[in-house]
Amino acid sequence: MQKLSGAGVFEHADPNNYVEQLRTSSLSVGTYSIPAGGVDDQAPHHEEEIYVVTTGRATFVTPDGAEPVGPGDVLFVAAEEEHRFTDVTEDLALLVFFAPPYSGR
């Protein structure tokens, strides 16, 4: 058993911050923070992702459309799918689960 203290807690960074809290052979877990008014400039990943919104509000945009998101929302993103957070109105903190582990391109 491993406890991930501080996972999902907003960490202010300019402009964004990703901190990995766990890596195994099959997945990785980290916290992605985007400040209010920030721009999410990420590119598609080779890994599948699950985002859990722990704090903040934004709009999540994919080729299929846009959805407002807030605390408690869970989002699945297939590998290679274009996606980003826009209209970040409150400091946004997301638990991010990657499978396989995030490669960082």
From TrEMBL:
Short name of one Pfam family: Cupin_2
Gene3D superfamilies: Jelly Rolls
InterPro entries xref list: Cupin_2 (IPR013096), RmlC-like_jellyroll (IPR014710), RmlC_Cupin_sf (IPR011051)
Parts of the chain that traverse the membrane: none
Name of this protein: Cupin domain
Boundaries of every Cupin type-2 domain copy: 32-96
